[in-house]
Amino acid sequence: MPTQQETSAGLHTINHIPFEVDKGIAARARIGLVVLATDHTMEHEFRQIVTLPGVAFYHSRIPNSPTVNPDTLQAMAGHISERAAEILPGMPLDVVAYGCTSASMVIGEERVFELIHATRPEAAATTPITAAFAAFKALGCRRIGVLTPYRDDVNRMVREYIIARGFEVPVFGSFNVENDNTVARISAHSLRAAILEIGRRDEVDAVFLSCTSLRLAGAVTSIEQELDKPVTSSNHALIWHTLRLAGIDEPIGGFGRLYQLPD
């Protein structure tokens, strides 16, 4: 029962008002994102695609250098656990996604999963490259044309990592940019032209844009229509994979072939 108090000024304070608790805005799925401090794009594309009632995502930012090289990528390993722990303390998450494609390869997917599970044992874990592999398999594609913004030593590592997981990379293109703040501003026209150049090759089944700073979500449908081949990116695949890991499997229109696949 509520209790009432009357102050000397005649004002009433009502305490212990009864209330009910519902499942909140994440009634279907609660997704945690560990986003790079330098990332301009990942949350934006999540907001574009994830508009399903009852599905919510929450993020923390991980320290990183805007200069992308193997040393700066490896340095993020020391922060992944603590940043995952900062997302809604005391509330379980269905999925935690670490949002760096190249660092997930430098650190290693399994090590990233271990670091996430150190503080979030209840959550399924994924990374952009984990999601990309799941997307390639779901789309039935093995010969992947890859587009990155990275410098040459990171590019070599990316290509070798993808091939080691059983896929072919017959065409590999790069903007060869080292600064993440510049990568985030590569224009939609430039991205489209590069995707089409890579994707039109007969030896390519699909095109993958590797880097969460690159923007694809708004253009993927029209590019796929022109190529007649699947196209995905780090964010595009990651969003799809987090939804699937959370048990959200209905098709979502307007974002290409991947989002139309049956469960």
Summarize the model shown.
The protein is α/β, with parallel strands linked by helices and 263 residues long. 37% of the residues lie in helices and 20% in strands.
Protein architecture, described:
With 263 residues, this protein is of the alpha/beta class. The chain has 2 domains: 24-129 and 238-255, Rossmann fold (3-Layer(aba) Sandwich); 130-234, Rossmann fold, CATH 3.40.50. 37% of the residues lie in helices and 20% in strands. The chain contains 11 helices and 10 strands. The protein has a 4-stranded parallel beta sheet with strand order 4-3-5-6, with helices on both faces. Helix 7 links the parallel strand 7 and strand 8. Helix 6 (128-139) packs across helix 11. The chain is elongated. The termini are far apart. 43% of the residues are buried.
Please render the helix and strand layout as text:
Blueprint: E1 3-6, E2 12-15, E3 29-36, H1 42-49, E4 55-62, H2 70-74, H3 80-85, E5 95-99, H4 101-107, H5 109-119, E6 124-126, H6 128-139, E7 143-148, H7 152-164, E8 168-174, H8 180-183, H9 188-199, E9 206-209, H10 220-227, E10 231-233, H11 234-245
Parallel strand pairs: 3-4, 3-5, 5-6, 7-8, 7-9, 9-10
Antiparallel strand pairs: 1-2
Helix pairs in contact: 6-11
